[in-house]
Task: structure prediction
Amino acid sequence: MMELTLKDRLRKAVLTADEPGKRSAIVSALAAPLRRWTEPKSRVDHLLIVPQDLRTGDPSFWDELEHGQFGLAGCIAFLHGRSPFEIEAPSVAWVRELHGFGWLRNLDAAASDRARATARCLALEWALRFGNERIGIVAEPVVAARRLISWLSHANLLLEDAEPETYGAITASLARQLTHLHASWREAPAGYPRLLTLTALACATLSLAGHDRKVREVETNLVAELSWQVLADGGHVTRNPALLVELLLDLLPLSQCFTARDRKLPDRLGETLEHMLPMLRYMRLGDGMLARFNGVSCSEAASLATVVAYDDGSLGPLVEARASGYARLERGAAIILADVGRPPSLALSGSAQAGCLSFEMSVGKELLFVNGGMPPAAAGDWLPAARATASHNALVLGEKSSSRLITHRKLEALLGVPPIRYPDSVEWKVEDIGDAVLDARHDGYYRRHELVHSRRLQLSSGGLRLTGCDRLDGMHGKVRLRADLPFAIHFHLIPAARCGIGASHQEAMITLPSGERWAFRADGAALSVEDSTYFAESAGPRPALQIVLRGVTYGETEVNWVAERMPEGKVE
Result:
């Protein structure tokens, strides 16, 4: 009966509490059982600093919550008067975000007494119901790390003017969470998840009183993880450009924690930040957003703008991203970014896509050619299509992707998707001959068909003409196939662009949203304008158009093409 009474009181606090005296009574009732728990080995009496949360809060989340809706991970759950911890979850991703408490920033942004009371009551409910859990989603190192960072970053929301019982209950829970993460961080999957757990540990040991003796150990582990995860050019080992934003949103506040505690910033952490900011600049197109390679979805403009603000340009531009496997050509108002790297190791390839030698191009602030990108979490059914080579501005041979999905039960369970492998060899170079030129080749089709794909991109000095050449031939000489193989070279457009066949069947006319027009011509393959799908939209995949060059190869084929701005167009 007592358990039911507590839940009823909490439910009422979450949905209807508006009297300070009533809220205090509810908090006290909830905190009493917490005080009887076994105290953690290392107590927390107070916070020394509160880390900054650089992620932007959405105050409309509170408006939706007041109407009984709890939207996370692209799904909306309807509370119907219940606590979000009691309802049937719409997805596993939703549960992870719920227990990660990243949504606290939205309640903080609402700047409302009712929102503050709700945040405090939900944190207390979590501590009461789940604080001693050591298995399941709630205890996963990544979820625990995100929750620890969220509670610390929004400690003012949870603790400011709180009753002593509430303050004690939340800080005691923080100590337990920290103890649990110290014991479990090595169980986090390799890559960003493990780096996140160490970042959380570093933030917590610097922020919570009584944990200074752990700082050196955590710092050593963090530096070791950064040393192999962040490449020499500042990219991440997964080759996912979007992770640069996530890492900076975590690491920049951590660096501020060292400063606030008057502790020397670890050299490796400082070097990592200095390398990552220019790399992020390198991977942005003219519209300011990240190119859609290897896991980039609907980029959050606010998050990107936040980390970009830390780049004052004093670090200088990145000349070449060879470690990460990306090439950049820039002339006039035109920018081209190309994927010229191999997939990462199998254990890190969950976000990798089969887009080797694909490219994206912007002119001024408009996008001309784009890859399909990664669909949002709520559109996961589209993921296999989005990872395929056909969803990239690249050549598809024999209706197969240039990478292979690998059957590996344990890795697939860990990553949530099959890992990919191949190409094994990618060679490339960039030349400046007045025009900017990229020459690249990969062996992704060699094992199946003994053929190598080579691509040459030449961007004119004014940025108004892109000339391309795609070749298929043998690794060391001519190859004669037993049967002709079909190939298709894809050029995807943004959903807002219009495209149709021009004056000849080998010409297409592209009209961008501004009215700027580009002519696309090809020789060596049949040109067509076909339907496409653009995946990188927060609302889900959208229909778009693509230019496709189709033909067959007997073992040696060359296709030449050119995209050229029409004279009547204009570049802003």
Residues 1-41 have pLDDT under 50 and may be disordered.
